[in-house]
Input
Amino acid sequence: MNPLIPLFVAIPLAGAFLIMILGRFIKDFNKYFASLILLILLIFSIYSLITTGSKLSLYKVGGWEPVNGVPIGIYMVMDGFTVIVLCIINIVGFLSVFYSISYIKRYTAENYYYALFCLMVAGMNGVVLSGDLFNIFVFLEISVIGAYALVAFGVEKNELEATFKYQVLGGIASFIILFGIGLIYWKTKTLNIADIKASMSSGYEKSFYLFAQILILSGFGLKAAIIPFHAWLPDAHSSAPSPISAMLSGVLIKAVGIYVIIRLFFNMFAITEGMSILITTLGTLSMVIGVFLAIGQWDIKRLLAYHSISQMGYVVLSAGIGMILISRGEKPEVAALAITGGVFHLINHAAFKGLLFLNAGAIEYTIGTRDLHEMGGLSKFMPATSATSFIASMSISGIPPFNGFFSKLIIIIAAIMARFYFVALLAVIVSIITLASFLKFQRYAFYNKTDAVNERKIKEVPFPMIFSMVIMSILCVLLSLLVIPGIRELVLTPAIDILMDPSKYSSIITGN
Amino acid sequence: MIAYWMCFILFLVGLYGAITRRNLIKIAISLSIMEFSTFLFFALIGYIDGGVAPIVDPADPVKIYVDPLPQALVLTAIVIGLATTAMLMAVIIRIYRKYGTFDIREIKNLRG
Amino acid sequence: MKGMTTIVKKTTQLIAGMVFMYGIYVIIHGHLTPGGGFAGGVILAGSFILLILAFGSDFVKLMKEETGSTLYENLAILTVLLLALSGLLLGTRIFFMNWMPKGTLGQLISAGMLPLYNIFVGIEVAASILTIFLALVIFKEEMKE
Output
């Protein structure tokens, strides 16, 4: 058993508590210790990415061996797809916490900030590593409680309103998820994802599981802000401190929302055509409506938040296309291509959306406003911020040679090959509107000449912020290498393999 | 079977309350109703006719026990529910201090 | 926060000790009877909350108490985590492994590490519920000014 797997949860938890104890007595302990913890996790996750490959490692917590082939303990599972999401969480987490070293100085109670940050990371790592439904719920709650508190960190009117909305909708989502888990446990008498799959194959009550599927989809859909459930996202993501926005938008909605939806619907439930069409429709709606809602925004962070909804739409849509093709049993290579596009876009979105929120934070840090009307001509004073945000904007709009182009291209090609011409057309149109929206952002923030900005006091942000932004922008360029054959086999293909074969995950874990 | 349906109806009552009420405290109470209906459902699915509490007694081993797992799950979920409720209450108190009201219609700084 | 009348104070004096002892009983019998760390911890916190409600406390003292309970909470949960990690470092090298001798079923000192987990979880829950209570009271006290 790989001893790294529980450490992904144990280290940030221990870090959070140590910060709360020692941070009281030692000055500046909190920020450097939190960075150190996230750096260790980053090294562990990259090591796991290199060593895991296509194998699936299983960790039985407490050493509880299965009895008569029925798993009874808590299982933690690490496979190709898990490792990718782990890498996203810990890379964006490290860069955000490093960025916070200078950014968070203006708030009081830094100890709480770093402790909650570590808790949030621990929760997300737990969600992606957990192999049973109830632990997904527990870790999800750990991470979202951290997120609720961090969204409210400014304790001003806007933050409190946003966090109240987030908490009520998040609470409703949690109980819907818990109810769905209860239904599944009632029928299958097990909570282990692999074991549920195995016992579902013996007797499948279609209408009962359809109800459970809809509960689970709406619960995690609320957490992931897919379009009918999106109301909390723009408020929460724009009110949080910027490094937290980068974490929420870049990682949290993926780790606790999209990841779990993809994992459960591909590897646990039997893939049905109706459900896959529903998921594709939700994805398409998110993609289109998200971008239209983003057009009219003048607050940078709200604009970015609406684009998150739209970009997550691409991921859900491509996963849905893959599911439709798998359920019909036709063209497996196109299904694999669609899922590749989705997973690849998931990675890319973490890089560019994280970077964009860090840029927005840098702008807010310097000139103290988020309104696009009140900025302009910043490129002269903030060259690093300007250059990195240009890379991120081009990347999210799908301009070659940046990473966003390749993932969107794969998704569109897959949609055309699967004969969803209308969806492919919509994807192209949404991409063009995204480009327009980000050109507006670039022009008003960095190039437009106005006298609204007081030129004397503007200077470039401190080193930790620049460092994080530059590393993220390098990632934006480098990640496009993942499509090259040779590198693709190392990272993307193991994840696609585990998702493509519906029974592989369960048969490896239960061992039959 | 009727008990399971009652749980679901209680869940829907909570959901209705959370959606339609305008007072922050009442929304929090509605969320708690949803929470506890779910816990009740979990306790019900572990019940076995004629079963006793799952405490192993070495002197008298042959008995039918109810399923202990849902009880453990409910206990964990209660702890989580405690944390979320406390968090929600803290936010509500803060909101009351900033806005001076519990009415959700008057709390609308964020729009668009 | 002001205290309550003499009747309440006297009754609380009589009851609080018993509540406290009962909480400890529930915690240390956690592996034998229903209850355990969480239930016992809530009862423990209840006795403290009773005392604070009955006798009242001024703002500065409340802040000091909250600092102390936060510290205890963090230390206790850190100990639980260290106990879990001890399974990873010692014995069979598995996270959360119960590596201590199990003893005989039904004895007070048995079940390996479970009583230890129960005790520290009990302290953690008692401290955290007290912290929540104190934090909410402090909010209320701040509001008056």
